[in-house]
Amino acid sequence: MLSIIQSPEFSTRVPHFLGVAIEAHVLNSPTSPALWEEMVQAGKTIVACYTPDTIKDHPGIAATRSAYKACGKDPSRYRPASEQLARRILQGKSLYSVDTLVDLGNLVSIAAGYPTGLLDADRIEGEQLTLGIGRAEEPYEGIGRGPLNVEGLPLYRDACGGVASPTSDSTRTMLSASTTHLLFIINGYDGHRPRMEHALAHALDLLRRYADCREEHIVWF
Fold this sequence. Notes:
Distance between the termini: 14 Å
Strand order of the largest sheet: 1-4-7-8
Strand content: 15-25%
């Protein structure tokens, strides 16, 4: 079982952060019509409640943007993934479907406003992740982004370096069709326990219904 801790550098700058992770064995697959319909409905909820100008006021997104500033990153240049997804919906653009695991992770992020990280746990080096802050010229390859400047970004590291940030997860631990060992991280930068518990319950429900989730292990940090 993996453990996750916050570095003193991070916890000093973002004292209200609350994280939770699900480690589980799963079955990945092409996204089903039923899961995609849940994505569509979540998008309609966002459109009913926000505009491109007001989405930054969503509690989960606003807290993440504040955390970026506290760590030294401009959230308007390096948007959190949860905000990227919501803005895409509000701009009338279609979301991309990848596979069951990626799409259900995006669904939780859209619904909660919290950035999520979905990693292939078998590709993580060592038995612990540490949440810290990215350094200047630290090597990091973001999924779909190429080399990413992680300086000032909240950053999870394993024994070999960065594996996940709220802007983009790393290609080194990215999911694939053959992923069977999942680490699903939910980042609550507002520290709101009830909202985090709701997001966790949502994630577990989706994993059980669509990804044959079993041997679940929950870690709060």
